[in-house]
Structure formats: structure tokens, C-alpha cells
Amino acid sequence: MGYRMENGYTRFLVSFLTFVVMSIPFIFFAIYHVRYCIDNGMSGLSVLGIVLGVVTFLAFIITSRSNPGVINKQVYPARVYDELKGKYRTTNPPRLIDTTINGQVLKVKYCITCHIYRPPRTVHCSDCDVCVIRYDHHCPYIANCVGYHNYKRFLVFVLLCSLYYTTLTVVSVIRSIEFFQQFSDAIADKPVEIIGTLVSAIITFMSLWVILGLFIFHMFLISKNTSTYDKFKENYVDFNPFNRGFLTNCWNVLLYWQRKNRGITSVYQPNAMYKMHERLSQDIVTPKKA
Question: Please, which domain of life does this record's source organism belong to (predicted)?
Fold first, then answer.
């Protein structure tokens, strides 16, 4: 319990620091750069920066509070009444079950923490202590997992961040060039504005490349219908049974809109064979005809 509480505080602290780092350039932009843009015929740039900032912060909050696709935990199976045998179970169910997807046999694991069989590409997150459908990764900066039900929200957030930091970087560079052209006079008249502009430019420029690289990386993952977890674990290196081609992969991830998640129950049924529910994931599809 102590570890979970400490881990929760750490996650909140990292997420809060992320919000603060995002806010510093925005606050400085609103105080110093908006008036400059308006006075120099760049009103559209000032409006764009404000709108992108507000929308990005909203996307941050929505993504951090969204359900990634958590499968509800079940009771310990040894205490479950088995209707087939007419008595309570005394042992755990088999740890692994084989299932075939697109001609490839995959191991379906039993989660001893959540007491469920995990659908393919479902992973138990040690930070959140839950099983997440089509788990991509745990993002410490939003203090939440990224999975099947919030992946599109995460992509929108990353895209908005890229546009937000691009706008602020452009304004900071324009102001920095102006200051350096008249550095001796500017440093005496506007020391706070100069230092703030330089700090803002450094933060936004570094953040821009990191966020933009992250967005490009996820576009690559989508084109292959894989995930961050699969990529770094080197799963499906020789053959990816979930790959349906570039267009189909993009459609399934970017354009397909899943049903509203009202809490996913266990896929483990003590009185029946293991059954994969297609609604849990787009991974289960009809094999292609020859």
C-alpha cells in the first residue's frame, strides 16, 4: 500500500511539473508577446498562440483523465463457484492459453493480479496496477496509460502540442532576433523581457523537437499496426499478425470510433471455455480470403 501511495504521489508530481513547464512559455507569451504581435501587424499569430495554448491544456487534462481501456479486476478464481463441477475452485486456472490470429499462434496470459485472461496486446501496467487493452505505453507526463480507448486523444494532444510549440518558437525567435540587433539598449530597458524570451525560446524549441519526434514515431507505429510496447519488447519482429496494410491500419486506428467504454468485465469465464470478445479490440478480425 505504501508503494502504491508513494507511486501515486510521484505520478501526480511529474504530471503537475509537465503542466507547469507547458504553462511558463504560454504565460510569458500572453504577457509580453501578444501586445508585440498586435502592434506589429501579426494579430493572427497572437490569436493562434492563445487558442492553441488553451486547447492544448484542455487536451492535456482530457487525456490524463481518460480511460485507456481498463479491464475490471475479478475476484480470486479459487473462490469462484464452478458450475460445471458443482463446487468452488481450489486452484488457479491455466497460466497460458493458445489462440490463433491470422495463422499465428499467440499465447494468452492469465493475469494473477486482475484474475483475467488478457486479450492479445493487453498488458498489466505496474504503475496503474490494471490491465489495459491494446496497451501502448504508460506516459508519466500525463500520469496515465495510453491504450485502445484513449489512443486517439493522446495523438490529438501530441499534435496540438507540436503546433503550440511551433507557434511559440516562431514568436520567440522573432523577438530574440530583434533584441540582439539592439542588444545594448534592449538589455537596459527590458531585462526581464529579454531573459524571459530566451528562456521561453529554449523551452519551446527543445520541447518542439521532442514532441514532433514523438508524433512522427507514432505515425510510423500506426502504419505498421504495432505499439510502443511491442516495438521496444521486439514482439512480432518476423511477422505481425495484426498488420493489415497501410490504409487499413490507419483506418482502424485513426478513423474507427469504438463504442463508449462503460467498464470492461473479465474475459475469463470459470464455467466456459476462454472466449475472445471482438468488441474488446480490433485485433481480432476475419482472416483474409486466399
Answer: Eukaryota
Average pLDDT (201-211) is 88
**What's the Cα-to-Cα distance from 84 to each of 81, 88, 96, rounded to whole Å?**
9, 10, 21
Per-residue model confidence (pLDDT) at position 221: 93
- Measured CA to CA, the distance from residue 151 to residue 249 in angstroms comes to 14
Cα–Cα dist 230/282, whole Å: 16
285: amino acid identity, one letter:
V
Q: What is the pLDDT of residues 157-202, one digit of tens each?
A: 999 999 999 999 988 888 877 777 666 565 666 677 777 778 888 8
Among all residues, which ones are annotated catalytic?
139
Q: How confident is the model at residue 275 (pLDDT cuts 50, 70, 90)?
A: very low
